[in-house]
Amino acid sequence: MPIEIERKFLLLDDSWCYKADAGIIMHQGYLSNNSKSSIRVRISGEQANLNIKSSTPGTVRSEYEYPVPVTEAEELLADLCHESIIEKIRYHVEFSGFTWEIDVFSGANSGLVVAEIELSEIDQDFPRPAWLGREVSDKIRYYNSHLAGYPYSQWSKEEKECS
Questions:
Q1: What is the CATH number for 10?
Q2: d(CA 135, CA 9)
Q3: Does 143 qualify as catalytic in the annotation?
Q4: Where do the H-state alpha helices sit in the chain?
Q5: pLDDT-based confidence at 77, cuts 50/70/90?
Q6: Tally of structural domains, the chain
Q7: C-alpha span between 128 and 133 (Å, rounded)
Q8: Distance of alpha carbon 81 from alpha carbon 109, whole angstroms
Q9: What is the mean pLDDT of residues 43-66?
Q10: Considering 18, 30, 64, 91, which one is annotated as catalytic?
Q11: Residue 144 sits in which domain range?
């Protein structure tokens, strides 16, 4: 069973920008999202994928991903996805041999910026850049599947501060 080991963090500042690539625009929506799994369609630039991921909170989850034609992904986003569509630009930043994915959200999640790192082992050690803030890997509210139904723009000040 394919698994994803991912750690998610907030950022302290935007100094990561100076080392980032040009970024890629992403649109994603959820065909299904329940307590057991989520089924997502995502368009990333000129590519599209269908993704099935377990809804297990934390750093390790089952994940399956399959390419789909962009035109079909556009139809799925327009016609079959429930809740809101996630809009973001994903940047990649290389740091000490690791690649960080920085998601800068727009639309209903504007103002939220999250850094993610995928690891090959659960307890793998990795260097932490100076711009890295508080870890939110176990905070479901930061999962894209949750943001689709309860966007960042609807969070209270306390929810934003007491992550």
A1: 2.40.320.10
A2: 4
A3: no
A4: 70-79, 144-149, 157-161
A5: very high
A6: 1
A7: 9
A8: 17
A9: 94
A10: 30
A11: 3-161
